[in-house]
Design a protein that fits this description.
Blueprint (H helix, E strand, L loop, with lengths): L1 H5 L6 H24 L5 H31 L1 E4 L4 E2 L3 E5 H4 L9 E7 L4 E3 L6 H17 L10 E2 L12 E3 H10 L3 H7 L3 E4 L3 H12 L8 H18 L13 H15 L11 H10 L1
Parallel strand pairs: 4-6, 4-7
Antiparallel strand pairs: 1-2, 1-5, 3-4, 3-8
Helix pairs in contact: 2-3, 3-5, 6-8, 9-10, 10-11
Length: 286
């Protein structure tokens, strides 16, 4: 995929949008033909679609960041002026490397530390990364004559749609320690840095919020209430036969696996995995 992208000269946002959409169309066409022809199994479909995202996001971000740095300079932090970058966290099916051809992508944006840019037009890091994140969403999500790359959903971030688009690590840590809810633990099981130099540091910071050292039976009631809420939505919208949302569907399978991961994952590290299929295998073996 990178070889295809490297053949094109990209000088502005419109060219970037065009190249990424044409790559998606090419990858999806090939994948759909292989799927219909019985040449691609489920794992190939999920892996190819996920790989497209893992190529498109860093590629777009690299270009957008270069253009933005030419205006504001490099965002830095601390007395040593350590360079900062945007960490893009993939949630849901993207985080679990289980995207299908119709999936949208759930993202959360973060950056390590507060500070400001070192350039002719200085701005604080929060402003810089907010602008950068907004540009990235538009590049991926906007519908043009070539279609779109991926639909982007940002509702899993702290405070949901009303919250800031990007957060520094300190703000993320304080939010989840003080206000983090059970459904957010559930969601973060699949959280994974798609790009950014301090993704592993972020993962280590989030792990105590996700996995408790003791057997976490206290989360069962909260998860039961979440499940009841989901069931009410399904019944109210007549989705009982929906393969994803209906009873016994994909969401039920994911929910069941993740409940056991939350309860036992703190003591059993083999359950600290993101893909649902892998989690089911580990649960069977344990």
């Amino acid at each position: 995929m990178l070889d295809i992208l490297s053949r094109h000269g990209i000088n502005d946002v419109n060219a970037l949008k065009r190249v990424l959409r044409r790559l998606r169309n090419q990858v999806m066409l090939r994948l759909i033909v292989r799927d219909i022809g019985g040449l691609a199994d489920l794992y190939e479909v999920m892996n190819t679609t996920t790989c497209l995202t893992e190529v498109a996001i860093p590629f777009a971000l690299k270009h957008l960041n270069t253009w933005q740095q030419s205006i504001y300079g490099i965002p830095c932090a601390g007395k040593d002026e350590n360079p900062q970058d945007l960490i893009v966290i993939g949630m849901g099916k993207l985080g679990g490397r289980e995207l299908n051809v119709s999936s949208d992508i759930d993202l959360i944006f973060a950056y390590p530390e507060e500070g400001e840019t070192r350039g002719p037009k200085k701005v604080d890091n929060h402003t810089y990364f907010t602008d950068l994140a907004q540009l990235l969403i538009k590049v991926l999500n906007d519908v043009t004559e070539d279609g779109f790359v991926f639909r982007v959903d940002m509702r899993l971030r702290p405070f949901g749609s009303s919250g800031p688009l990007v957060c520094c690590f300190e703000m993320l840590e304080q939010y989840y320690q003080i206000q983090g809810r059970e459904w957010e633990r559930y969601a973060w099981i699949k959280g994974r840095a798609i790009c950014g130099t301090k993704g592993e540091e972020l993962a280590n910071m989030m792990r105590p919020f996700l996995y408790r050292k003791y057997l976490d039976f206290g989360s069962i009631q909260a998860l039961r209430e979440l499940k009841d809420q989901i069931l009410k939505e399904v019944r109210g919208s007549k989705l009982n036969l929906n393969i994803k949302l209906g009873s016994g569907g994909i969401r039920d399978i994911e929910f069941t696996a993740q409940v056991f991961q939350l309860i036992y994952g703190g003591r059993n590290k083999s359950l600290q995995v993101r893909p649902t299929m892998e989690a089911l295998v580990q649960l069977r073996n344990n």
